[in-house]
Design a protein that fits this description.
With about 300 residues, this protein is an all-alpha fold. It is built from 15 helices and no strands.
């Protein structure tokens, strides 16, 4: 075969290979199709975000309205921007007192949960005994027990132990919050290399020193996650303070006074809700980046 004919045959073969459809492989979506899919996803997420934020926006708008205006049209804009509802709610709920009580309960309970659960999870992971696995299963099982099933004996025991006070409710919160925290810490600690602790043990470090100086700093993501979840839970809890504490001891109990058989003051209730939810919303916004990282890391490493 002459060289011109060989060149023509080679060029024809290459063109046939380019035009031949690839068997077993489907063409991927085009760039424009992917852009349309992303735009549609963004629209769906914006609509979902609006529905999630709508109750909070409605509460904020109604906090500036009087009661007749709220009952007549709760979704309308306020006719005037007045802070009289906030002033009255501040005075009637004794906001500084109940805020301080709620703050003390939340901070001390969350700190106790973090300390006890992290140490317990560390021991359960590092000890390879059967009792350790049995205790971990017991903590996991207690997570599915509803609070309504234990609230009556819990109240009786709290009364017998003289825990019906602001400081007495703290160990109760620690006991209720530890199972979930231990479960999350347990999965995360499994991913911490044992060789680091062994090297410290060779240098003479005790178990407490290895935990507080080596392991605990490595638990920062999951610690922040547990802290955020517990702060949101304890700050917004209503049923346990209603059982344990006197009336109007926390923010939630003070707000409950706006609703009764002969009283329905929606304007003051909305204003107090905005006041009480602002600190915890700010705390969540500052710490939200740790939630997904901590939960996903604990799930993968567990």
């Amino acid at each position: 075969m002459s060289k011109p004919m060989a060149d023509k045959a080679s060029a024809g073969a290459q063109a046939w290979l380019r035009e031949k459809p690839r068997v077993g492989r489907r063409p991927g979506p085009s760039l424009s199709a992917r852009k349309r899919a992303l735009v549609a996803l963004e629209i769906v997420m914006l609509v979902a975000a609006f529905f999630f934020l709508f109750p909070g926006l409605l509460t904020l708008l109604n906090s500036f309205k009087p009661d007749p205006e709220i009952t007549s049209n709760p979704i309308s804009l306020p006719t005037s921007l007045s802070f009289s509802n906030y002033v009255e709610a501040w005075k009637e709920t004794r906001f500084p007192v109940v805020f301080f009580n709620t703050f003390v309960i939340t901070v001390l309970s969350t700190a106790g949960i973090l300390l006890v659960s992290s140490m317990a999870a560390y021991i359960l992971v590092r000890t390879k005994w059967r009792i350790s696995w049995a205790l971990f299963l017991l903590f996991t099982f207690s997570m599915v027990v509803p609070f309504q099933a234990i609230m009556v004996p819990l109240f009786v025991n709290a009364k017998n132990l003289n825990l019906l006070s602001v400081l007495g409710i703290i160990p109760i919160y620690i006991g209720l919050g530890c199972p979930l925290a231990i479960f999350m810490f347990h999965g995360f600690i499994k991913g911490v290399p044992v060789e680091i602790e062994e090297a410290a043990a060779i240098d003479g470090a005790s178990m407490f020193r290895r935990f507080f100086q080596i392991v605990l700093p490595l638990l920062a993501p999951i610690t922040a996650t547990v802290a955020v979840l517990d702060v949101l839970w304890i700050w917004n809890d209503f049923l346990l303070p209603l059982l344990i504490l006197p009336k109007q001891s926390t923010l939630q109990l003070a707000q409950f006074g706006f609703f009764g058989m002969y009283r329905q003051q929606y304007s003051l209730a909305m204003a107090s809700l905005v006041l009480s939810s602002s600190p915890v919303i700010l705390f969540y916004l500052l710490m939200q980046k740790y939630i997904i990282n901590g939960i996903s890391a604990g799930a993968v490493k567990g």
